[in-house]
Design a protein that fits this description.
The protein is an alpha+beta fold. The protein is 24% helix and 33% strand. It has one domain: Alpha-Beta Plaits, CATH 3.30.70.330. The strands form 2 sheets. A 4-stranded antiparallel β-sheet has the order 2-3-1-6, covered by helices on one side. A two-stranded antiparallel sheet has the order 4-5.
Length: 83
């Protein structure tokens, strides 16, 4: 399951992001989206977890949790629309 994680502090790195979710199960991948010109974090990222039960538990427990002085927004990622 692909999970959207928003409202991240700009200093959070991918290993820190993975670490939060690894408490709930196995993380397949972690990606923080960056600005293509400056390389700076855009404040959101994605986590992939293969086990849907673990992923849903992580979503329900981490959504609204404070991390680096920010309340995380965590939900199932929507598929990118093709135009």
């Amino acid at each position: 399951m692909n999970i959207y994680v928003g409202n991240l502090d700009f200093k959070v790195n991918e290993s820190e992001l993975s670490g939060i979710f690894e408490e709930y199960g196995t993380v397949s991948s972690s990606k923080i989206v960056t600005d293509k010109f400056s390389g700076r974090s855009r404040g959101f990222g994605f986590i992939t977890m293969d086990n849907a039960v673990e992923a849903n538990r992580a979503i329900s427990e981490l959504n609204g949790m404070k991390f680096s002085n920010r309340e995380l927004v965590v939900n199932e990622a929507l598929e990118k629309k093709q135009f």
